[in-house]
Predict the structure.
Amino acid sequence: MNIPVAAAALINSDGAVLVQKRCAGRSMAGLWEFPGGKIEADERPEIALVRELREELGIIVAASDLNPVNFASAPLDGDHLILLLYICRKWTGNPSAIDAEVIQWVSINSLYALAMPPADAPLVESLARLLWLPTRQEQ
């Protein structure tokens, strides 16, 4: 079964990206991820992501401020996760760790050092290219 998920690379005015650490007791606990969540059967990915960012971080995002970047897929507990990644540079409110152990703003280069779920990690290269930063292979 395919599990569609939408996630956001929130980028602040300093160019840092927000990541959150998965809570203990959950699948992939302790790994760092881009915030987001499952897309319900009746939702467009952007609407699901607006909902998830409000629930997980307490911020308000307009669907029109979500820009698609790339997608990745990975096996997940006998199913298959399809992760759609969006960039978002505009939101209302201050992100807080409502549904995560902790959140952190990190540079793109710092993302390479974080332990991330299999579907999130490959998207770091896409972000680096999009933001015109050296990728891992170029460093």
